[in-house]
Each structure stands twice: as C-alpha cells, then as structure tokens.
Amino acid sequence: MRTSVVVIGAGQTGLAVSYFLSERDIEHVILERGSVGQSWRSERWDSLRLLTPNSQSRLPGHVYDGNDPDGFMTMTEVVGFLDDYARRIAAPVRSGVTVTSVRRRGSAYQVGTDDGTWDADAVVIATGACNTPRIPAVAEGLPDDVVQVTPADYRNPDLLPEGGVLVVGASASGAQIASEVQRSGRQVTLAVGEHVRVPRTYRGRDLMWWMEVTGRLDERYDDVDDIVRARHLPSTQLVGTPERVSLDLNTLTAEGVRLAGRLAAVTNGRAQFSGSLRNVAKLADLKERRLLEFFDEWAVEAGLDGALGPVERYEPTRIEDEPPLSADFAADGIRSVVWATGYLADHSFVDIDVLDRKGQLKHDGGVVTASPGLYRIGLPVLRRRKSTFIHGAGDDARDITEHLAGYLASVAVDEAECAVG
C-alpha cells in the first residue's frame, strides 16, 4: 500500500494534521490503533473532565457550539467532539490498525502495521504524550501486598482495595485523584514534589482565559529561555468542574488529605519522604503570585483593569509543623499506591537513529531534522505552550503541514531532475 503521508494516531493533533493535508490536496492516511480519540476513551478515569473550558474546545474548521461555554467536557463529550470532527473533515482514518515499525527506505518511509505495510514519502507521529506511565525506581521496594496503579488504569475509588492510599505526585492528576479518593472515605497521604499552583478563576475570569488573552499560551518554543525544563514541568493543579473550584494543597488538606514531601525511598515496608515539603510549597506560592502579578500588569496595559474583579491574593500553602517523614504501609493501613508521576511518550516503533538515550524523539519544534520527512506533533511545548491542549493542535498542525508540504515539493523536484538527468 502506498500514500504520500502516513499520520499515526487519530486524536486531536492527527485529525488537525489531516485537515491541513486535505486543504493542500495531499494524499494521506491516518492509522489508529483503536478508534478516533482512543486514549480519551480508554485511558482516563471516570470523573475526569477537560482542564480547558468548552469555549477553548476548537480545532481547524470545528468549534464548540453548545450552550455551556464556561463548562468542562467529560471524556464522553470529548470523544463525541472528536468523532464529529473526523466526520466533518472526512478524515481517512483506518481504525484498529497498530503501527509496529517506522523505517527509512532511501528518501522515503516504510510503516509496518498489524494489517500490512505502507510506503510513504513522509510520516507524522501524532500518538500523544501520555503513552507510558512513568513509575519511579522506588516502586521496586513496595511490599508485595500493596496494589499499585497509575492514572492510566485508575477509574474510581471503588476499584482500589480497602484502606489508606498513598498518591505520589501533586500535579493535576495526583491532586484530582487524591481529592476524589479522600472524599470517598479513604485516608490519603499525598507525596508532594515540584508542583504548579494556580487558581481556577481569578478576578472573575477562568485561568485559561487569562493564559490565552495575555498571550502566555502562544509563546513559541524557540522563545522559551529553558525549553527542556518547560517541556518537563508538571501540569498545573487544575480541575474542571461545574462549580469551577480551585484544587490546591490547601483545598486538599481541608478535605483531610495528609501532605508529605517527595517520596524518596521505600525500604522495609516504610515510605521515606523528603523534608523539602515546606520549601516546594513556598516556591509554588511564589510562582503563583508572580503569575497573578503578570495578569494584573497586562490588565492595566490593556485598559481592562476596571472591567475585571478586584485583585486577589491567596493564603500561603498551609503545612503542618512537623510533616511526616515516613509512613509504615502495614501499621498505617496503606493498601494501595497511585503513581501520578507523569508519562513518557512511546517511540519504540521508530526504527531510525533519531531517539535519545531515554527513547525520546530528537526534534526541532516537531521537525525531525536527522530524518527529513519525519514529524512529531502533540508533545508538551512542541511549538507553543498550548501544544498539548485541544485548541493548541490547530496552530501546530498548520506549521507542521506547511513544512511537510515544502519537503514533499523538494522531493518531487529532486525526482524530476533525476528523471531528466
């Protein structure tokens, strides 16, 4: 089988790439291991909603048109949104096809699947950023009878064993799961490392409104001072709920969650926590205040200061006088651990020398310069700070497709010259 471009993955980024390829009349196919938006269907917990309001659910040629622009989509609604989009743009999706290899053949590519092989001039990998849960090495020290899960396979508190729960990681996933499990009646201990504290709303507007109107989300990857750090920052402590509540560490402690420092080791049935909790909380408070000051300055410069609510500042994170430095799994009744410690993108099917020592694709804003015609999309801060949000897919897909079209044109010229020569 042959086509000009193989797109791997039919999530929001793969579909957005398809939109722009079709706009340029570039022949292509989308290979999807499951169905459109598969990860939204099968790798999210029951109560999860988008962190971005419905008004920011937009893709090229497709926008949210419901009557709740300030609400947050459930996973079922996200899948419906993407299904509608795929139908609207007539995306050439081949569902139930798993890509097993991507190899270079001369100046072209050969894509192996469990349903045959595709030859193509270019390949766009759009398989998302959250393919493999990152589980730290200290997990090897856990007692055998302690159940371990990750956000990819956590569904709801009822599926965890009775007893206390240790949640490791205080980003959006960790904070949301800790809150949900604690409210179900379990005692949760939350191991807190570096985290990003933000309010859900500020001066009467949603945080994501502020991030968009101030241009923060449009900041390009090549304008970011430390792009490596930016791409590895934990997600913000946000939750999308009809009540538009904030979810920071003060919220969690008010619910009864017990805070501890970063999980440093597990030995002889005991978890050992870092003594850095107070410092990391202070740092998160400081960064939140700087972000709010940035918003305030923008509001004055934009002439909107008087049209917004009053300036707000929030109580510093409350830390108990002597946070726990250890926990005994048996004595404290901790029967399960949730590893909310991030993800790695899976590029194990890429059989080309373009991966670093950690198996991550080396690229420049999604362009794999070491292998012309190979592209990546959908990674954190790939081309902009909004790259992993649904409304960020369009701008990145347009950029990638423009570069890809130029590449295909150059290949066509080379082939024509060879034919004449």
TrEMBL record:
Pfam family, one: Pyr_redox_3
Record GO terms (molecular function): flavin adenine dinucleotide binding; monooxygenase activity
Keyword Oxidoreductase: yes
Domain of life, source organism: Bacteria
Keyword Cytoplasm: no
InterPro entries (alphabetical): Auxin_biosynth/cation_transpt (IPR050982), FAD/NAD-bd_sf (IPR036188)
Keyword annotations of the record: Oxidoreductase
Classification via PANTHER family: FLAVIN-BINDING MONOOXYGENASE-LIKE PROTEIN (AFU_ORTHOLOGUE AFUA_4G09220), FLAVIN-CONTAINING MONOOXYGENASE
Listed name of the protein: Putative flavoprotein involved in K+ transport
The species this protein was found in: Flexivirga oryzae
